[in-house]
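Is this the right way to post structure tokens for a design question? Let me know if I should format differently. Anyway, here goes:
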């Protein structure tokens, strides 16, 4: 059974969550990505009154800079092992994971119409930040609350990404 997307149902966090922070550290270590931020209480960009998942401390933004190959590898790996890693959402703002999506990007969610899947963005329906060279990730509340060592154990329990 597919788990529902959590969004911001757990409300505003009081501080950073250890699983989210360790996820970022592991991405920096494995792919040499940069941490652009995790917990910040704010609305979704361009949507006043709609709380960002960053406010729950379960979202992170990690920059891949010019290393598109590493970004594609990472996003495909996150989606493949989303259950184990506790990934609820992945934003590919530059659309590099699918030809033809470069203009508005695309996003993956753990539950799209009852099953996990990608959505190709359009000019009217997108996640903003067109052509941004970072990945946005969202974790389940459970995985975000794992202590760092426990989240790292989950990370290490799944096969490493396959180099293209």
């Amino acid at each position: 059974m597919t788990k529902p997307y959590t969004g911001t149902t757990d409300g505003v966090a009081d501080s950073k969550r250890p699983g989210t922070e360790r996820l970022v550290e592991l991405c920096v270590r494995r792919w040499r990505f940069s941490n652009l931020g995790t917990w910040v209480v704010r609305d979704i960009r361009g949507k006043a009154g709609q709380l960002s998942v960053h406010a729950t401390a379960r979202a992170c933004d990690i920059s891949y800079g010019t290393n598109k190959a590493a970004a594609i590898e990472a996003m495909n790996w996150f989606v493949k092992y989303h259950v184990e890693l506790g990934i609820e959402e992945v934003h590919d703002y530059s659309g590099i994971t699918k030809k033809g999506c470069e203009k508005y990007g695309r996003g993956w969610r753990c539950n799209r119409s009852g099953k996990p899947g990608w959505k190709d963005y359009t000019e009217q329906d997108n996640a903003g930040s067109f052509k941004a060279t970072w990945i946005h990730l969202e974790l389940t509340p459970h995985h975000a609350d794992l202590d760092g060592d426990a989240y790292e154990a989950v990370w290490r329990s799944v096969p490493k990404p396959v180099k293209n």
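Format looks fine. Someone answered above. Worth noting: The CA atoms of residues 19 and 146 lie 5 Å apart. The beta strands are 34-37, 43-44, 47-51, 59-63, 87-92, 106-112, 115-120, 134-139.
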